[in-house]
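User: My notes are a mess, but here's the protein and zinc ion's SMILES. Can you give me a structure?
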Amino acid sequence: MSENDWFDTGYEGLDKADEEYEKRAPDDNELRRVWLKPGQEIELVFETDEPACLWEHQLNMDGHWRNWFTCRRDMEDGCHICDHENDNPAYIGAYVARDMTGWKNKKGELRGVGRRVLYVGKRKTLKQLKSLKEKREARGLRGLKGVRFSITRSDSSSPNCGDLFDALGDEDMAALPEAGPMPNLREYFAPKTHAELQALFGVSGGGTGGGGGKPPEDEDIPF
Ligand SMILES: [Zn+2]
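Assistant: No problem, the inputs look usable. Here's the predicted complex:
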């Protein structure tokens, strides 16, 4: 590409673009949700024992399902999405965890090990984790916090956060890579205001074509 030009013919720019994407890719501070493909395994260390729980909408907008909105059903002025977008919220619980598996970039280099992530489950997963925690504690073991788990999603009909939990042992939390202060999940999940939702969806709703249907478990939601 010549200097001072935004236009390019041919493939020469691709390598450079790859580098650019690589820099953008998930080293950012955004808290990403763990999402597993069928058969995929991840190792996580939980940093919280108790989930932050709330009702949440997940809507198909702009051609994808990576659109989550905290439901306002329990708030005084009600929930615009419940009332106008024909969507039932899901009850979810979110844990803070560290991704001990990371990922490989195109050059085969391992990235992101120790990165802080959100582990979000729905009722079935929350019940599993509650039971797991209680059983472990009854045996005098750590519950979830500070424990490294291998989590596998057994197949495409299993939740995309995985369904098989295998405790691998206690983790030395002080030895984990620095990840800054723990996120405030109350702030992270703070619902949009009634006015913000109206602006987004239109006053009477239906503005996005969102709502209706459910995300297939296989929907491509890479973290
Ligand atoms: Zn709602």
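Residues 57, 71-73, 79, 81-82, 89 surround zinc ion (CB under 6 Å).
User: Great, I'll file this with my notes.
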